[in-house]
Amino acid sequence: MHLQRYLAALFLLVAFCHPLSGSAEEDTGAGKKKIEAPSPNGRFAFRHKGESDDTPETYVLIDRKSGKVLKQVAKADPDLGPSARFHMEVLWKPDSERFALIGTFWKRGSEVMVFVREGATFREVKLPELTAEIPEKVMAGKEYPHVVELSSQSAKRWRKDGSLEVEIETIQDGNGSTIQANRTVILGFGKDGKAKILKSTTKYTKPDEASS
Prior knowledge:
Layout (H helix, E strand, L loop, with lengths): L2 H7 L14 E4 L4 E5 L7 E6 L8 E6 L5 E7 L10 E7 L5 E8 L3 E10 L2 E5 L10 H4 L6 E13 L5 E11 L2 E13 L5 E11 L1 H5 L1
Antiparallel strand pairs: 1-2, 2-3, 3-4, 4-5, 6-7, 7-8, 8-9, 10-11, 11-12, 12-13
Keywords: Signal
């Protein structure tokens, strides 16, 4: 199943890449809530509530001062069992007007989402399709039937001009060989709220051949 469809199955409603900082925990009796990834201006943060017997795992954007929930970012579907487990990272833009969210799902890879400030909350920006494909000519007649990673995405940094650098990785192997595609994309964001690809480069490598 394609990652985007899988995220929809998890009820990923709206949506990050430095290590999370400033985290704290609240024990509410129905599972611990961890406060993490505060915005640079200190106004916003995220609350991660771990699974309990009767409460699914959730990740929400909050007003840091009041604790008010502004947006539900992710909610695991308990019917999916262990496959619904997720890990989130946040990459805030220095002015706190945007953030990139990286959702990593157990055995499913990762996907980047971007949110822009809109009044007291944030809205999701629709991104162009971000994939890293390996053409047949790069495989040079060899077969790599096992997909290790399929277009796993990671937000790397916000640039000074407001654009976002994203990396996408696909890895396939088989018959004792591995082939890898690493695509770097620069995303720009217009005043109309839309995102577009400003630059894209892809590098193909065969680690086994390089080490031999």
